[in-house]
Design brief:
alpha+beta; Uridine Diphospho-n-acetylenolpyruvylglucosamine Reductase, domain 2; Uridine Diphospho-n-acetylenolpyruvylglucosamine Reductase, domain 3; Uridine Diphospho-n-acetylenolpyruvylglucosamine Reductase, domain 1; 3 domains; 5-stranded antiparallel β-sheet; 24% helix; globular; binds flavin-adenine dinucleotide
């Protein structure tokens, strides 16, 4: 039986650096340990923890917090062109991306330097610079959180959307992901360099998976606050998608509004631009604040509580609703 700690601080386990405690805590490094923790009848509630980079803790957690620390990377199958790799849930995402690049595999380069673990990546279909996890996803294995029975979800069954999947909607909290399989290229890599910043960063360098990853890393290091220096959870809100009619109305009031057309009838607006426009960039409410360079990122300047950060988020949501008639959706998981 794995050690179970009592009344453990989760401050070091969430990138916001918020002080909250869980009633009981265990870290599992095998599927058997995970199964035993899920089936342990001493606990009525369970909380699944990965790298803690997409969380805002607003209260102490009752029951057992299970830190998923399963490790391992293996080749499932390969041919001259493609390879299918399985990585265990507790592997660090960015370390895995670097490992794939060192093997000469392509596919994950645009997703370099995203914090968090492998097992959490499918939950919100992590994405950056024109690529989403779903582009390389083959399947993931899970254990049912109540019965601990194993399941496997393929691409269709995972129902991926923009920062979304079945694990964030219909099956929220019902499965623990234990491993993810990816299909990566060994040659004829499909490179995505249509984001202007990537092209600028690449300059005269040839487009290759490694060079793109280096460009992405350099851009992200300049642009995004490092959670080791200032507590944050990356983008706090999703970029809103509006209808064509809403978009035309907004454009009349804000002709300079940046936007990305995602279909004939839908347009995505950068939430950071809206928040900046409302004067929130760099503001502070006690130790909670909006980052001075990235209005989409809420930060903990020191000892902010989760409630303080959430209160600021709600204030921003209200301002956006009143001024832009847009409901900003929170991307971070609130507990
Ligand atoms: C600086 C910064 C930049 C970021 N940039 C991006 C970005 O560019 N694109 C992007 O998409 N995201 C980004 N994020 C968000 C975050 O990195 C991702 O959402 C990441 O996948 C979260 O992984 P995690 O292991 O830290 O999850 P956690 O925060 O530990 O957990 C998130 C949720 O998943 C649940 N969970 C955890 N592990 C499992 C599991 N094994 N099975 C089932 N449920 C589980 C938790 O209960 C919680 O609800 C960024 C975050 C930061 C701090």
């Amino acid at each position: 039986m794995k050690t179970i700690e009592q009344h453990k601080s989760l401050k070091a386990y969430n990138t916001f650096g918020v002080e909250c405690f869980c009633e009981y805590f265990t870290s599992v490094s095998t599927t058997e340990e995970l199964r035993a923790a899920l089936l342990n009848e001493d606990f009525s509630q369970r909380f699944i923890l990965g790298g803690g980079s997409n969380l805002l803790l607003t209260k102490n957690l009752s029951g057992l917090c299970i830190h998923v620390d399963l490790k391992g990377i293996r080749i499932v199958e390969e041919n001259d062109d493609l390879v299918i790799i399985e990585a265990s849930a507790g592997e660090n995402w960015h370390d895995f991306v670097l490992w794939t690049l060192d093997q000469g595999y392509g596919g994950l380069e645009n997703l370099a330097l995203i914090p968090g673990n492998i097992g959490t990546a499918p939950i919100q279909n992590i994405g950056a610079y024109g690529v989403e996890l779903k582009n390389c996803f083959v399947n993931c294995t899970t254990l049912d959180t109540i019965t601990a029975t194993p399941h496997r979800f393929n691409l269709e069954e995972a129902v991926f959307g923009y920062r979304n999947s079945i694990f964030k909607t219909a099956l929220k909290g019902k499965h623990v992901i234990t491993a993810v399989q990816f299909r990566l290229t060994k040659k004829n890599h499909i490179l995505k360099t249509d984001y202007g910043v990537i092209q600028e960063e690449l300059g005269s360098k040839v487009s290759s998976p490694k060079n793109i990853a280096e460009a992405v890393i350099a851009i992200r290091q300049r642009k995004l606050p490092d959670p080791k220096k200032i507590g944050n959870s990356g983008s706090f809100f999703k970029n809103p998608v509006v209808t064509e009619i809403q978009f035309q109305n907004l454009l009349q009031e804000h002709p300079e509004m940046p936007h990305y057309r995602i279909s004939d009838s839908e347009v995505k607006i950068p939430a950071g631009w809206i928040i900046d426009r409302l004067g929130y960039k760099g503001i502070k409410r006690g130790a909670a604040g909006v980052h001075e360079h990235q209005a989409l990122v809420l930060v903990n300047h020191g000892n902010a509580s989760g409630i303080e950060i959430l209160t600021l988020a709600k204030e921003i949501q209200e301002k956006v609703l009143v001024n832009f008639k847009i409901s900003l959706e929170i991307e971070v998981n609130i507990y």
